[in-house]
Amino acid sequence: MSKSNLGTQRAEEKSSRAPQHPPWYLEPFEGESISHYFGRFRRQEMVNISAPGSLGKKAGIGMALSRWEKFRWNPRPTYNELEAMGKLIGIEVSKLEALCPPEGVAMVHRSTRLCGACYREAPYHRLHWQFQSTSGCEKHRRRLIWRNIHF
Questions:
Q1: Contact 37, 97 (CB under 8 A)
Q2: Under 8 Å CB-to-CB from 31, ≥6 apart: which residues?
Q3: pLDDT tens across 37-46, in order?
């Protein structure tokens, strides 16, 4: 087999193993919060679903997504809930799990917190900003900005 045929064969094998994503697939950013991710997902032109409850109902998980978007983790998402949501929007469960806080980490849920400098560099909400243990940005050496949310 020639080198060009071998290269073509390897490319075809690699593409056949790559996950096939639907046209509305949205890749999460590194460290992104589940709240920000699903807000971005719902605002896509081809999706255009304004309420988290609507998306949760379509996945068969009821209002769980609304709770997650408010950083309320009691109870934590189950594997089955994440799997149902993943099937609906075409994303792997492991990527959804990465949007959730680690087990046992206390979260701030009455306000959204962020580092203005980080957000200016890359405008998405980082999950670790919501950890109760996070009071400032280690990269920029600044306190986090708090925005109160009225639920």
A1: no
A2: 126, 127, 128
A3: 999 998 888 8
